[in-house]
Design goal:
By secondary structure, the protein is an alpha/beta fold. It is built from 15 helices and 12 strands. α2 runs antiparallel to α7, α12 runs parallel beside α15 and α13 packs antiparallel against α14.
């Protein structure tokens, strides 16, 4: 990887992976080496925690315990996962992943990632945040495989995954971030507002004109290939809100958070408005979590309702504040785990009022 890059692509891992690999973990290509310091230590600790969740079995997927999923049979706690076991087999992430996005990068993926005009970072259930060229093991771990996995990467404050991205932004001198995540479950793992503040050129979220969800990852992969192979760094820095980018099968819309124009196609506009509403709900929930951690540093996301009730019993918050907090958290859970609603179904004005109560802006806790 070049030492400095001013553009960063953020995408997600894939369930389909190539098996096998080579012995020996090259730390020089890892995100933890790049960001260093406390952030690196926290990322490795988070990976170790998720590894232990996998090894213990945890929640089942399709009736199979996580530890028994095929991809996890040879998984070891190597230096990539905060351990020292020497028997891991590694491939660069962009070669390991064989899902819709990564297959579009084509056979020249290595050169695109090493000498192209942008860096690529990947969100992963096991690894949290990794560079596309970083060596990783074969594994099978979705964000929703265990209730604690999302907590590891998006817990207190902005969350480890966000801190890793911001650390990379600072390390590489990134000015503009492009969001290729597509899926709600991964997109809202990150605190985009904090990332936006760390990158002078802001964040562009990418939406398909007609395509959403998993199906969007294929044209997004094609777009990433086109941008990495045919655009200069300066051209990428000139991308802006409201611009359409053409791929072979889909037009991709760039959105920075400004109100989308009315002339957008209805389905695309609905998707962008839904994103803005969901992003606001998740930001509200992060502030509620920060308040809860401030009140009780031992607080964990998995026990939010019970812990809030306990704080009421201890007379540290009022019943009114407690109920408002629960309302915000319930809607955060809807955003992160359920994807069947529209922006019109999110009571955003009501939630803003509840947020004011939950954070003490319309009364004292």
């Amino acid at each position: 990887m070049r030492e400095q890059r001013r553009v960063l692509f953020v995408t997600i891992c894939s369930n389909n992976k190539k098996g096998g690999g080579r012995a020996g973990y090259d730390t020089s290509k890892s995100l933890t080496t790049r960001v260093g310091g406390q952030v690196a230590a926290e990322i490795l600790h988070g990976r170790a925690r998720v590894f232990e969740l996998i090894r213990k079995g945890g929640k089942t997927r399709g009736g199979i315990r996580i530890s028994e999923l095929f991809g996890n049979h040879a998984l070891v706690k190597g230096p990539d996962l905060g351990g020292a076991e020497p028997d891991g087999r590694y491939l660069p992430a962009a070669h390991r992943y064989t899902g819709s996005f990564f297959t579009q990068l084509g056979p020249d993926a290595t050169s695109l990632l090493s000498s192209g005009p942008a860096s690529v970072v990947v969100l992963s259930g096991l690894y949290g945040t990794i560079l596309a060229g970083e060596p990783i093991q074969d594994y099978s771990c979705h964000l929703n495989d265990h209730p604690a996995i999302r907590t590891v990467w998006a817990g207190s404050g902005s969350g480890l995954a966000t801190n890793a991205v911001i650390g990379l932004v600072k390390s590489l001198g990134v000015e503009k971030v492009l969001d290729f995540t597509a899926l709600h479950s991964y997109r809202y793992l990150l605190d985009w507002d904090s990332i936006r503040k760390s990158a002078p050129g802001g964040v562009l979220h990418l939406f398909g004109e007609r395509t959403t969800g998993n199906s969007l990852l294929t044209p997004l992969g094609a777009l990433a290939r086109n941008l990495l192979s045919a655009q200069t760094e300066e051209e990428l820095l000139c991308l802006q809100n409201g611009q359409f980018l053409q791929t072979e099968t889909e037009r991709i819309y760039c959105h920075s958070g400004d109100r989308p124009p009315r002339e957008l196609p209805d389905e695309l506009r609905d998707e962008v408005v839904l994103f803005d509403a969901c992003d606001e709900v998740v930001r509200m929930a992060r502030e509620v979590r920060k308040r809860l951690y401030a009140l009780d540093p031992t607080f964990e996301d998995k026990g939010i309702p019970g812990r809030i009730d306990r704080l009421v019993t201890e007379r540290r918050i009022s019943g009114e504040v407690a109920e408002a907090m629960k309302d915000i958290v319930r809607w955060r859970n809807q955003v992160e785990y359920q994807y069947t609603f529209t922006a019109l179904q999110i009571p955003i004005d009501w939630l803003r009022a509840r947020y004011d109560v939950a954070t003490g802006q319309s009364g004292r806790a």
